[in-house]
Amino acid sequence: MIEFIRRRLGVKLFLSYLAVIMIGVLILGVATEFTVPTAFNRHLGMMDQMMGNGGMTMGAGPGGGAGPGYGQGNGYGSELYQNFRASFGEALVLAALAAMAVALVVSLIFSGSVVAPVRAMMTASRRIAEGHYDERVQGGRSDELGQLAHSFNQMAGQLEQVEARRRQLIGDITHELRTPLTAIKGSMEGLMDGVLPASLETYQQVHQEADRLSRLVDDLQELSRVEAGAYEMDLRPADISVLVGTVVKRLGYQFDEKRVGLRASLSPDLPRVLADNDRIIQVLTNLVGNALHYTPAGGEVTIRAERQGGEVHVTVEDTGIGIPPEHLPHIFTRFYRVDKSRSRHAGGGSGIGLTVARHLVEAHGGRIWAESEGRGRGSAFTFTLPVAG
Ligand code: ADP
């Protein structure tokens, strides 16, 4: 029985209404015990005076000892009082019964309107747990239940997106792994069948593909670490010109080798930024490395930095192959490459670098974006960092 009550919202609601009604009736009963005799006697006194009796001829035997009473023991007054009390008591019982009936109906209606959407949410959450991520509940109400249904649907929508991203990720990784694996397998089979010569070139091809696989695994590891936020951020005031200097020194040799110019053009009054040095060096290395990769010999890469309000804007600009406008919104999406085949054969990456860079910049509270006038007209990548203090 207790378990039944505990599990039914309607019963609980009815019982709470019942408790309120009982307490109301009790208070009314007790209050009337005290107030009615006095009021009754006052009323009779007035009637006495009006009838010219001079008072104290009739009187109520005061219930509960209330009030002194007019002419105690007078039969007529006492009888009138008893009748009055009896009818008052009956009215009270009738009112209590009517209130209980109303409470029953109201609790049934109200609990129905509360229980139905809660049950719908229970069923929907079970279906979602079984993997039906497209399950939604009906909204439309403006009360707390409506807001709950809205939040529930939002949660279901996000779960659906996570699931879609997970599927997409598995598909992408499978695709990325298949290409070098197929190439390695093909070369090995060619070698075994004697179709391919056992030359240095063949071994170099196999090695290149194995290398690609190993870089992909490293990139994926880094991506999963960054996406899960599984890294420490050591934010402290940093001098952006020192960080740029480090990257220029590190990549200078590769620029010289490819005969691409690299220069830094930083505002003289740059404030210090709040940054994790290693992470920002990682972002800069990625952007400058890309700029080098996508800029043909004879081109130029410039790193600029300037203050804009409470931020420092750092831009890596190149005179390279550029990015067509329709690709610009997607290049920070993982595995996205403007020209997949060219990127692959030209030794390009797996399309993860910019995704990692975006995560790292956003972890600093900054933004990152790309601009390009189109194919062959160079690109500029800008990220922002908050000024320290
Ligand atoms: P990847 O490792 O393939 O370079 P990224 O995430 O770093 O991956 O870049 C994604 C894609 O954006 C690249 O494949 C390339 O098509 C394009 N891209 C990035 N930087 C540049 C650039 N400086 N110039 C032209 N295209 C670029």
Care to describe what's here?
The protein contains nine helices and seven strands. Strand 6 (368-372) and strand 7 form a beta hairpin. The chain has 389 residues and is of the alpha+beta class. The strands form two sheets. A five-stranded mixed beta sheet has the order 2-4-5-7-6. It has a two-stranded antiparallel sheet with strand order 1-3. Helix 3 packs parallel to helix 4 (144-193), helix 4 (144-193) runs antiparallel to helix 5 (200-227) and helix 7 (277-293) packs antiparallel against helix 9 (353-363). The protein starts with a helix and ends with a strand. It is elongated and about 130 Å long. The longest helix has 55 residues, at 75-129. Bound molecules: adenosine-5'-diphosphate. Residues 290-291, 294, 318, 320-321, 323, 331, 336-338, 343, 348-355, 379 line the site of adenosine-5'-diphosphate (ADP).
Strand content: 5-15%
Taking all Cα atoms into account, the compactness measure Rg is 42 Å
Number of helices: 9
Poorly predicted runs are 55-73
**Main sheet, how many strands, which sense, barrel?**
5 strands, mixed
Anisotropy-based shape: elongated
Bound molecules: adenosine-5'-diphosphate
End-to-end distance, in Å? 64 Å
